[in-house]
Fold:
Amino acid sequence: MVFEASRLRSLRQDHAWDVPELARQLRLAAGSAAIPSHVALVRMIRRWESGANGMSERYQLLCRRLLESEGHPVTVSAAAPEDVAMPAAVQGESQVQRREFLTASAAVAGFLTVPPQLARLTAGRRIGAEVPEALARRLARLRRLDNYLGGGETYHLYAAELDATKTPAREAACTQETRQELLAVLSEQAQQAGWAAFDAGWQATARTLYQESLTAAQSSGSPALEGNALALLAYQNLTTGEPAAPLADAACEAAGSRTPPRVRALLHERRAWAIAHSAGGQDEARRALDRAAVALAEPDSEPVPDWAAWVDRSELQIMTGRCLTRAGQPL
Structure:
């Protein structure tokens, strides 16, 4: 029995659920079974509804189980998997998802080998610019695990990678430029480990890592990473009930106009979300969203950091909807 992904949006709306609520319900329906983090699952649902990805059999089963448990029998198409060929488009999406998962698995396998920063120190204490470049590429691969696993499952990978980088950042002989690049990678690794800890609910650990990331970013001279560290601290404060707007303001100020457009768009979005939680902050939140839109309209004249590459107009529309809903203006 095949659940038609094209019906997912209408079925969800029949329940008066937004996408995050559907993600929460699916996690509950999964019980003790392993399932991606809430943030990753929200992204997956949005890709299903947009048609960007097909639903695997596992999630089709979860959706049917969830909707039927709510008293809404689901009419599905009968199909004998061994006799009926899957449409070519669906086959293609399935193959893409399989390749993505294998890529993520390969990243884990690569992690299990000696980290390049330590291997280079074993061969000799002097390192060149190729080491931070290799570490940045490695982190980009490891970051893809977020699409499949929760923070509790990825945290130790990210934390170990961060710890391994601290040794060459502290002890290796290199040029000042290479050391600053190492500190920038270390800052990015601390942010990734902090996000995994945050996703797992380990707030004290996440805050420590975000602060460590901020210090490394300032030492590396990276306004983009400095701004993102402050924005992540602001985002965490929203969760823990502490003031977030001042940190979000500081994030945009730190980044200034010297950072890639998508980075600035991301920071303005997060500032809008923080302000939307403040009394009477609706107008300023709208202005922050407008600034994000202006930034996204600029061409990418320089490489976009991997951690901000996902920011686009669709993401801005989603954040706009969240802010307006928070302000009591969902329509």
Summary: Residues 5-84 form one domain. The chain has a mean pLDDT of 80. DSSP finds 15 helices and no strands in the chain.
